[in-house]
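Entry 14. Structure prediction run on the chain below.
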Amino acid sequence: MLEAMGLKVWMPLPDALSDPAPASEQPLAERPAPSRTLREPALEAAGGGGGARQAAPARPVLAPAPAPMPAPAEPPAASPLQTLLPAALVAAQGERAHAIQTMDWVQLRDSVASCRACGLCEGRQRTVFGVGHEQAHWMIIGEAPGEQEDLQGEPFVGQAGKLLDNMLRALGLGRGSAEAPQQVFVANTLKCRPPRNRNPEPAELAQCLPYLQRQIELVKPRIILALGRFAVQTLLQRSEAIGRLRGQVHDYQGIPVVVSYHPAYLLRNLPDKARAWEDLCLARMVYQQRLGETGAG
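Output returned:
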């Protein structure tokens, strides 16, 4: 299918990292049914002399079941990050996020470079801020930096980066300095590499989220393509696996978001390349529709 579309560049490349497996879903516990109790009246003894006889025991009376209590109203669902963070950290992160919201590109880049908000700063070689056109129509959001990204300070390098460039080229896009409609801005959810490429911790994602949010505000993309489980779940604040979220259009503050697999995952799971191409085609269709609605070029 892809070869027929001229996508011969989508060949598997060696030594690629695999995408972390989706988080398992926990079944909800069932509410126990209300119990029913029996009430037995005491036996009545007849008064009088020897001719008196004891009254026959009454039949057990079934007590009415207690009326079920109304189900409490469910509070608004907290984000996956907030449910795993201490309240003090959530409050501190909110104050820090407010300061980041006022930064321009230079201030934001400097803040990322000097950030020591979590322990990832101790082992990093370089921060990975992002790359591409600062007013690009497309924004690509990945997960956490890998070893090569940590060394070079740029997102999506190595074999996964080559595959991403091939994917973008198939859509007529690049991450250079040409005209904004043909360019992308690429950023990671995390700006520092987790040790040994482990999964990011919720507190680490929470500390980096304001940076990503400000980048989106500054770029003002027409469409966002989120690649990989942690990128998708952090941006959309959803806990479902990518397989359940892809193939549809989501929304981030009025910007359409299309979900797909991370290129590193695709290098190890070749059949899903066809699904990733479907996601790219969906993103292109949504982008073209958005241009038609806004009249932007």
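The chain has a mean pLDDT of 78.
Filed with the rest of this week's runs.
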